[in-house]
Amino acid sequence: MRKEHPLGFYSFVFVFSLAIFSIGNLIERDQSVFLLLAYVSAFAAYLFLQKEKESFRFLFGLGVFVRLSLFFSLPSLSDDVFRFIWDGTLLNNGIHPFDNLPGFYLDKDIPGISQGLYNKLNSPNYFTIYPPINQFIFWLGATIGNGSWLISTNIMRVILLAAEIGAFWLMVQLLKKYNRSSNLAFWYFLNPLVILEFVGNIHFEGLVIFFLLAGLYWFDNSRKLLSGSAFGLAIGTKLLPFIYMPFLFIYGLRNKKWMVSIIAGFIAILTLLPMVNQSFIEGMQNSLNLYFQKFEFNASFYYVAREIGYWIYGYNKIAQIGPLLSVLAIVSILGISVVAVIKKWSVPKAFLFILFCYLLFATTIHPWYTVPLIAFGILSGYYFPIVWSFIIFITYLGYSSEGFHLPLSWVVIEYLVVAIALILELKEKTLLINKK
Questions:
Q1: How confident is the model at residue 327, as a pLDDT?
Q2: Could you tell me the residue range of the domain that residue 376 belongs to?
Q3: d(CA 181, CA 342)
Q4: Number of neighbours of residue 143 by Cβ within 10 angstroms
Q5: Domain contains 155
Q6: Domain count of the chain?
């Protein structure tokens, strides 16, 4: 029997849909007041909709519908897609995207490469950093788009939409396996940040999450080859998932699944082979060095270390601080991996805190970097990533017509809120354990 919803329910559905549509199609990222009002409205409606436990199909349809509503415009909050189109256009013309910096091609009369597209690039003076799986998607978008930026973007959106639907299905299956309500998957699927960053702004963490969840699903079912292949594809899409491999290997030694991490590494290497040459190696190395030694955005520990560096030396010591924090991150990740195995954490919980640790030591944390935490948090019973998905949106309020400036006080507030949410949640779980 079809459930009858009160008028208030449909009011929240309308607010949610309109807010997401407005952010994706009507509001520019430098219109801070309107952007904040729309996001807060979407998030409030999102929280209300979680109470609808009997509307599984409706909520799933709503999640798909609002994503489709973002297909009408180019991304509003991020300009990364223009680099994707640039790389894809080079590939479509038989040019390796790692060979030269973008400016080299401006006077080469290459179809699809124009001054207009170049002007849209946010890092024209840096080599690309995207692995072959991404590059294939860029090529597909540029080839089918044939000069239309919106069509190229929407081809990528179709792939990300399919990945998100697949991730939702996998999350439902995993929640059932963990004896938890499948409706909890809507905390991920309807999250405004998830919707806006993946299908909206074309960030491929959405595809990474799909591969990671597939790896988890097969890992739990002892399908070692399929699990390792999925994890390997995740690494091949974004190199970051490599941080989970030490845990999977150590965990696998105890549970006779150590081959999963080996297979993952092998598959990851295979995905890189189609583009590997001297230019790829040098370009990737150059880009990674810049990432750790030049780029800084919305960081936590790094900002503290930077301020200490200013106080002692009088200038930004990022060239030294970035690599040092990377070493500390590696040591911490290895430590968490060992603790997770000893304490018999679930794999999603281990993934959650491994990634959280990495982000704490990173010099750059864009909003979409935090989204995998939401998926792992839901699967392991932690909800502080949802709090972060709300408060991190303030980083978009730093954009103006003059450029970008994010007051340090906003960053402090962001991390204080996240820290309080985490501490309260850990305290609550500790009390529950002690009661047992």
A1: 92
A2: 295-436
A3: 28
A4: 15
A5: no
A6: 1
